[in-house]
């Protein structure tokens, strides 16, 4: 009887010890939908269904933990070797489950999260829409991946200073430029309140489309003619380049060839709210510098 | 047949519906300026015969209209000489009575010409004959079933064709209007027109000049409605479930109970 | 509802009203711009603004009017030909065909230099038109001719569904075009310039004259096929010709303005609610009504959320549907005659 009581006490101490140790490794974060995610330990097998999240994970030097990506994740080059599980909005649930992931990263708008959770898979929904969002997402990822606190912060610092450097590289005429960024045939524009618009504002250039219209409004083509932008940037992946709506041929920017048509790879960089922020800014800055130099007049 | 003029003649007429043969080698002649009624049990092929005679159904054999072979007529010529009133034909609810009856003048109107004075006169005559003139501006959709039938009849009359083929023209008509129709047909025949009607109201069918009795796709008897041979053929074709009597100078068919 | 007016006069009055409305709306169209309604008088002082009016607003407004006219015409022909009040211009698969044409064109653009060269020449409008016409031909093939109305309708449904599925497949395989396709599917006059207007005007004139020339067939068909045949109308040839008119009108409208729903369906109904007339006389009035309907919707689409644009198709559905609902309510209250 004495042995049994000693066994009970021993087990009790073990449990207490365990209760003290485990919380130190348990992770709890809140995702973009407000729901909490608790992990006993940092995930080692991650599936990412959003290209910007893929790039973020790799930027945090945890690329080796990725075991599967969606079909649009193509940067950095090593993720192209990974198994593809479909597209981000409608991924192949079966393929994801077959990879036995510890964590799935996806967009808040994805319908797969409920299904995956019902199958017992941990899901984290993150969708950065502004620069502040991106900083928060990087921080959350840093916590979830079990990285030291300042790892994500240092990454953000690097991105921020690169962005500042690009902003400084903008020539004086370029800083006066009024820009129209088109992201799709319709025409769909990137306004001030979009991610791209925010980057443009950080550079110091001016967006012809006000943020009050929403991030990607479908505009009346007449609006662009009225706004008379100095430079047009086309990031819509349309092979025809700039679609000339009726009346656009007479715009100064079109007549004087101040139109930058981005290649599909460049368009990817521009559109994704991810760690290549500074590169996107660089693309726009180069375009502005080049085209405004041709104009040569500062207004 | 005998030497009288034949409005419609058929030789070895055969027709199928959906692959099933309905008319078997029918040969007949319908007298001009005469009212022939076509009777027979359900499924005897009466409607099919009428359609074949009107050229509205692909058939084997030959049909002559007014002593000329049917293929000689162009569509328009045939439509001017032969008017058709189908059974249970749809009528558009959104049309006015006058406009609907005017459609009967299509065979006479040059392709895109509007209605002429003679067209209007013909429509007026047709509407008058069916007592529909007073409501010529009403919408067809707002008429009762009997009124609609009279309008469709007026449409057929408006064609003013030599030969009129009518399939169940008395559907939905109340007794006074059935009597009106009878008098109308008699008037048409007096003018020299030929009327052929499929009727299942046997007592009214017996009012015709000639009767064509059909059974299972063949003509069993053709003769005057007054003849006793016609009456016995009629009784036989209906398996002696009817009896034919004379009352007040008219022949009546009553069920034999 | 007893009307005292002599029918042809009613029709003429309606036509005049619609023409007047068109003129007013076109004038308004010149004034609707990126800030909503703008005074035309101000325009005269500003050369850039004046150019906007002539190069952008006027062709869009005229284009919307013409596209609406084509769709209204096609709707009237479809409803007369099939004697079905639910018929619309797209019932022989032309909508799905046009979508597939545009989706394939967008997907293949840039994939191979040969494809790009061809497609650049054809243009997306050409691709839409080709798709629409080929779809109708496919329907005719499946139905083995124009004689059997029910077979035609069924074949049209089948072609519509199958081509729609293929379009979805194309979208899945190249999702980059999804946003652009959406603007096509919901309809837009943003792409209409003067050459497009001239093309639509030519086609509208041709199809209107052709449909009017064949209107006796539509009138006769109102009495049923057998009766129409008994009236001596050359049904097979003219039915095929009318389907050709339908495909041409629909294809042209869809090629320039995308898939605009409801105009073709609602325009003949709207006319019939005001004027009771034969299907043949309906065509011209339905065409005018469709034109006014689409132009009004386009003006609203451009001005409600200026400078943003709403898809025109949404507004045509709202406008046309609301009026039809009100009509149905009125008829329900009055009660049908037994």
Summarize the structure.
Chain A is of the alpha/beta class.
Chain-wise SSE layout:
The complex is a heterotrimer of chains A (299), B (257) and C (338).
Chain A: H1 2-25, E1 27-30, E2 36-39, E3 46-48, H2 51-59, E4 66-69, H3 93-98, E5 103-106, H4 112-118, E6 123-125, H5 131-144, H6 149-169, H7 172-175, E7 178-184, E8 188-189, H8 195-203, E9 206-207, H9 221-227, E10 231-234, H10 252-255, E11 259-261, H11 264-271, H12 277-295
Parallel strand pairs in A: 3-4, 3-5, 5-6, 7-9, 7-10, 10-11
Antiparallel strand pairs in A: 1-2, 7-8
Chain B: E1 6-17, E2 20-31, E3 35-39, H1 46-54, E4 60-65, E5 68-69, H2 75-81, E6 82-85, H3 97-102, H4 117-129, H5 145-158, E7 163-167, H6 175-191, E8 194-198, H7 202-205, E9 210-215, E10 218-224, H8 228-237, E11 242-247, E12 250-255
Parallel strand pairs in B: 3-8, 3-9, 6-7, 7-8
Antiparallel strand pairs in B: 1-2, 1-4, 4-5, 9-10, 11-12
Chain C: H1 7-31, E1 32-33, E2 36-37, H2 40-43, H3 47-82, H4 94-108, H5 113-142, H6 149-173, H7 178-186, H8 194-213, H9 215-221, H10 225-230, H11 235-257, H12 263-274, H13 279-303, H14 312-334
Helix pairs in contact in C: 1-3, 1-13, 3-8, 3-11, 3-12, 3-13, 4-5, 4-6, 5-6, 5-11, 8-11, 9-13, 12-13, 12-14, 13-14
Structure notes:
The complex is a heterotrimer of chains A (about 300), B (about 260) and C (about 350). Chain A contains twelve helices and eleven strands. By secondary structure, chain A is of the alpha/beta class. The mean pLDDT of chain A is about 85. The mean pLDDT of chain B is about 90. The N and C termini of chain B lie far apart (about 35 Å). Chain B is of the alpha/beta class and about 260 residues long. With about 350 residues, chain C is mainly alpha-helical. Helix content of chain C is about 75%, strand content about 0%. Chain C has helices at about 5-30, 40-45, 45-80, 95-110, 115-140, 150-175, 180-185, 195-215, 215-220, 225-230, 235-255, 265-275, 280-305, 310-335; strands at about 30-35, 35. Chain C has a two-stranded antiparallel ribbon with strand order 1-2. The longest helix of chain C has about 35 residues, at about 45-80. The chains are: A alpha/beta (about 300), B alpha/beta (about 260), C mainly alpha (about 350). Chains B and C meet through helix 2, strand 6 and helix 3 of B and helix 9 and helix 10 of C.
């Amino acid at each position: 009887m004495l042995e049994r009581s000693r066994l009970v006490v021993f087990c009790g101490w073990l449990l207490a010890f365990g209760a003290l140790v485990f919380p130190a490794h348990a992770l709890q974060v809140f995702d973009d939908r407000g729901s909490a995610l608790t992990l006993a330990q940092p995930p080692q097998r991650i599936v990412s269904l959003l290209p910007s999240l893929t790039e973020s994970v790799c930027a945090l030097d945890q690329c080796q933990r990725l075991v599967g990506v969606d079909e649009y994740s193509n940067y950095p080059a090593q993720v192209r070797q990974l198994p593809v599980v479909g597209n981000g909005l409608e991924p192949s649930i079966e393929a994801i489950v077959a990879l036995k992931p510890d964590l799935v990263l996806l967009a808040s708008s994805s319908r797969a999260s409920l299904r995956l959770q019902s199958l017992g898979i941990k899901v984290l929904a993150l969708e950065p829409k502004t620069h502040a969002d991106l900083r928060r997402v990087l921080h959350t990822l840093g916590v979830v991946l079990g990285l030291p606190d300042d790892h994500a912060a240092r990454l953000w610092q690097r991105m921020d200073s690169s962005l500042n450097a690009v902003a400084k590289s903008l020539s004086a005429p370029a800083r006066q430029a009024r820009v129209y960024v088109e992201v799709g045939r319709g025409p769909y524009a990137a306004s001030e309140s979009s991610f791209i618009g925010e980057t443009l504002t950080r550079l110091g250039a001016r967006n012809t489309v006000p943020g009050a219209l929403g991030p990607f409004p479908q505009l009346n083509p007449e609006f662009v003619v009225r706004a008379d932008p100095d430079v047009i940037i086309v990031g819509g992946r349309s092979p025809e380049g700039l679609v000339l709506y009726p009346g656009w041929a007479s715009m100064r920017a079109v007549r004087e060839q101040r139109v930058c048509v981005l290649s599909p790879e460049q368009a990817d960089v521009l559109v994704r709210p991810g760690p290549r922020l500074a590169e996107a800014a660089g693309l726009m800055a180069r375009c502005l510098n080049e085209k405004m130099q041709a104009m040569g007049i500062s207004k | 047949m005998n030497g009288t003029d034949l409005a419609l003649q058929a030789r070895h007429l055969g027709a199928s519906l959906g692959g099933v043969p309905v008319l078997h080698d029918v040969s007949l002649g319908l007298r001009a300026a005469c009212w022939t009624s076509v009777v027979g049990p359900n499924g005897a092929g009466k409607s099919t015969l009428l359609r074949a005679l009107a050229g509205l159904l692909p058939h084997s054999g030959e049909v002559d209209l007014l002593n000329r072979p049917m293929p000689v007529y162009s569509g328009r010529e045939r439509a001017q000489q032969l008017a058709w009133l189908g059974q249970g034909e749809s009528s558009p609810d959104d049309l006015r009575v006058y406009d609907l009856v005017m459609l009967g003048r299509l065979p006479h109107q040059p392709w895109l010409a509007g209605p002429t004075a003679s067209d209007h006169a013909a429509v007026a005559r047709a509407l008058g004959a069916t007592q529909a003139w007073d409501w010529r501006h009403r919408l067809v959709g707002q008429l009762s079933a009997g009124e609609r039938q009279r309008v469709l009849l007026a449409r057929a009359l408006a064609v003013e064709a030599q030969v009129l083929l009518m399939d169940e023209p008395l559907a939905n008509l109340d007794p006074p209007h059935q009597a009106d129709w009878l008098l109308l047909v008699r008037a048409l025949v007096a003018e020299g027109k030929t009327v052929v009607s499929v009727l299942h109201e046997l007592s009214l069918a017996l009012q015709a000049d000639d009767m064509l009795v059909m059974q299972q796709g063949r003509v069993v008897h053709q003769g005057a409605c007054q003849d006793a041979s016609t009456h016995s053929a009629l009784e036989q074709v209906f398996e002696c479930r009817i009896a034919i009597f004379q009352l007040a100078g008219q022949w009546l068919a009553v069920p034999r109970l | 509802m007893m009307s005292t007016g002599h029918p042809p006069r009613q029709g003429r009055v309606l036509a005049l009203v619609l023409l007047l409305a068109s003129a007013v709306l076109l004038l308004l169209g010149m004034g609707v711009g990126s800030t909503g309604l703008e005074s035309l008088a101000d325009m005269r002082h500003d050369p850039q603004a004046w150019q906007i009016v002539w190069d952008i607003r006027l062709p869009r407004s005229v284009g919307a009017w013409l596209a609406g006219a084509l769709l209204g015409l096609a709707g009237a022909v479809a409803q007369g030909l099939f004697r079905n009040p639910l018929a619309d211009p797209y019932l022989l698969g032309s909508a799905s065909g046009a979508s597939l044409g545009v989706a394939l064109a967008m997907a293949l653009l840039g994939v191979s230099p040969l494809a790009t060269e061809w497609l650049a020449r054809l243009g997306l409008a050409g691709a839409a038109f080709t798709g629409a016409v080929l779809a109708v031909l496919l329907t005719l093939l499946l139905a083995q001719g124009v004689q059997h109305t029910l077979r035609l309708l069924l074949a049209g449904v089948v072609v519509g569904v199958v081509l729609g599925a293929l379009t979805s497949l194309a979208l899945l395989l190249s999702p980059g075009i999804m946003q652009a396709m959406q603007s096509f599917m919901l309809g837009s006059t943003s792409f209409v310039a003067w050459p497009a207007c001239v093309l639509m005007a030519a086609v509208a004139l041709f199809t209107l004259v052709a449909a009017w020339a064949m209107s006796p067939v539509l009138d006769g068909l109102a009495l049923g096929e057998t009766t129409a045949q008994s009236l001596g109308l050359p049904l097979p040839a003219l039915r095929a010709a009318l389907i050709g008119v339908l495909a041409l009108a629909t294809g042209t409208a869809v090629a320039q303005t995308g898939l605009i729903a409801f105009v073709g369906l609602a325009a003949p109904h709207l006319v019939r609610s005001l004027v009771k007339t034969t299907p043949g006389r309906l065509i011209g009035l339905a065409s005018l009504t469709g034109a006014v309907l689409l132009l009004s919707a386009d003006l609203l689409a451009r001005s409600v959320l200026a400078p943003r644009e709403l898809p025109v198709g949404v507004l045509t559905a709202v406008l046309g549907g609301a009026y039809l609902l009100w009509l149905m309510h009125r008829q329900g209250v009055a009660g049908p005659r037994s």
